[in-house]
Amino acid sequence: MKKLFGVITAMTTPFEDSGAIDYSALEKQTDFLIEKGVDCLYPCGTTGEMYLCSAEEREKIAETVVKKAAGRVTVFIHVGAMTQEETIRLARHAQAIGADGIGVVTPSYFTVHDRAMVEYYKAVCQSVPADYPVYAYAIPQLAHNGLSCEVLDEICKACPNLVGIKYSFADMSQLLKYQRVNNGNFSVVFGADHLFLPALTMGCDGTVSGCSGPFPEAFVEVYKQYKAGNMVAARKAQDKANDLVWLMKGGADMSIFKNILTMRGIPGGHVRKPLLDLTEEELATLKTQVAQYL
Questions:
Q1: Chain segment 165-222, per-residue pLDDT in tens
Q2: Would you tell me how many other CB atoms lie within 10 Å of the CB of residue 52?
Q3: DSSP character for 70?
Q4: Counting beta carbons within 10 angstroms of the beta carbon of residue 232, is it exposed (0 to 12), middle (13 to 18) or buried (19 or more)?
Q5: I want to staple 208 with a disulfide (CB 3.0 to 4.6 A). Which of 8, 216, 240, 265 is the partner?
Q6: At what angle do helices 149-158 and 114-125 cross, to 10 degrees?
Q7: Portion of the chain with pLDDT greater than 90, in percent
């Protein structure tokens, strides 16, 4: 089964001022990221404002990215939704359109205990073919619920297509523990962009990075130099990537990502309410900060 690796870019969703999705801009973003050398595309996740999109919109986003990528890179679709029914709908759709696999965030807002968590992931994994790869997605600081290694082990026993986890909380000890799930046969990708290189040296397969969307080059260079065994160059690339991560506030405001894409000639569009675009003053400051990297 195909797995995530390297620089996995969490894509933004470009909205028009009216709130409609600009699918043409999404196609341009797809080409831009592939041309810059990212390894995988990951639309409809947190960076893609997934909870602000309808199921129909998410399906069309997935179709747009898969069709435009046309097999040039791996594409995993994030399908986690607020209801199990919608998650399964999106999972089946992703498999049907030819996406390489899916990511599934934990249930959000309501407290979900271990037994319910196991049943949830089993239902999703078993809704697609047994050889179709699924990544769990833990982001406890936003989703409220975490994922224990014991829960993941139990799911893996029933569902061989649960092949890994995207972990988006900067806890390196937990990162190490996840690598021992399923007797060590478990892929781990990290969502903390500024710790990409340390995560690689600890055995992770890559990073799912929102910050690599506007500036993929620095992250691609980290992975390239790491794979080549050039650790000094990899560290230098990570330092540059970290400057960009901190400039972009680590993804705390998706409007920053979108405005930088626009500065680079890729229409980034707007965020969808209740999120707000940058003010004119904030945008002017960002343009000044970004200018040295363009």
A1: 999 999 999 999 999 999 999 999 999 999 999 999 999 999 999 999 999 999 999 9
A2: 15
A3: T
A4: exposed
A5: 8
A6: 40
A7: 98
